[in-house]
Amino acid sequence: MPEPVKIIIEGKTYELPVIVGSEDEKAIDISNLRKKTGYITLDPGFNNTGSCISSITFLDGENGILRYRGVPIEELAENSTFVETAYLLINGELPTKKQLNRFSVLLNDNSLVHEDMQIFYQNFPRASHPMGILSSMVNALKSFYPELQENEEEINITVTRLLSKVRTMAALSYKISRGHKVVYPRPDLSYAANFLNMMFDTPVRPYMIDEDIVKALNVFWILHADHEQNCSTSAVRLVGSARVNLYAAISSGICALWGPLHGGANQAVIEMLSEIKADGKDLARVIEKAKDRKNPFRLMGFGHSVYKTYDPRAKILKKECDKILSKSYIDDPLLDLAKQLEVFALKDDYFIEHNLYPNIDFYSGILLRAIGIPTNMFSVMFAIGRMPGWIAQWRESIHDPRWKLNRPRQIYMGLPKRKYIPIDERQEGSSEASETESV
Ligand code: SDX
Question: Which of 56, 140, 149, 256 pairs with 244 at a CA distance of 20 to 30 A?
Fold first, then answer.
């Protein structure tokens, strides 16, 4: 048992237990701090605060290590498929042939979307962002599939349903937004090939499945499948802690992922590269703008809350981009621009001092463009990839013996107690609140 830490508060010494993880990460357990001392801790953004103990994903930001259930991301990207990796994350072990076959059959059996859902899709304004549609329609799944989730069997069905339908729902919103005929999932196609076919098959030009593209999409989704307690996963756990159904918890994760600082960064990277290209590719000016603290511009796809070295996923995606873009019929000038920008940024002292390296989003947009995915669907592609991670984390939380309603505290810095003033006695511009020092 590790030695407790001691803290001295107002002359009194308190001991707090220490928890050591299986990869030797250390934490001070403050779950009884307020009861013992009357003090809380303050950590805006929670960058120094662990919300849970988890066995799903190990991430070492200093050394660029990422493992799902102990398996290095590099080996999964090389040898696995997205469905097999999803099984590993959700069930904790790589499936046997029989288990994988059964899982694939279940995914196929649950790939259709209730026909009545199409009415909702038809009535979203055509310019609606696909992430807004996806979060609404995932939440709506509860209305169409109201079975409770009281036992493991029902949870298993709900999990497989969600994993399978999210792919169909994404393709459906794309087809309907284009006014194209909806394409249904086919039982003879793999998870990724089915998605591509539902997206791009048309009555006038059947979609030709390219195994290299299918492999690239599997790698893309494997790399996005989980990332410990990131913003959207924390949203799923926090909303899930109120004991809402899985669809509602996942819908909150989709909303969090939509943000340009999180899963929306892949779309923002392409928009940024396109702008740089249109402005004459003055990379020095771009880097100066990104370093200017008075300027809200950030170099999208660079920097990370946890990785302080090259995001291992970005390395793999960059290789995948080279592979796919080397195909004769695909060319994207933004890839060369991205590589030039990376070289430029990695030589800059500010970026070196602040440990700003490319993250997963820097190359993911280039790969998605090469596959033919429209830019406004990039974060939807991230959401499909992250689905098994959200599910695995939600499932781990509901079985956690310390699972409780999440309710952070705060430090109040507002006005002291004061009387209610009737409206006729209030003077214009006399509000005390405006005199409060801002923190
Ligand atoms: C994802 O958490 C996860 O795991 C997320 C994710 C996942 O798989 O779930 O990995 C997916 O969200 C990847 C990140 C995608 N976002 C972007 O690419 C947006 C651009 N990146 C930045 O907005 C930023 O790097 C964040 C938000 C990702 C992290 O910001 P932090 O936590 O503020 O980073 P930091 O504290 O390490 O920053 C240190 C300094 C700060 O400057 P100072 O105030 O100290 O002078 O570096 C600056 C930051 O302002 N900085 C940047 C920068 N990122 C950080 N300056 C210019 N360009 C950037 N991209």
Answer: 56
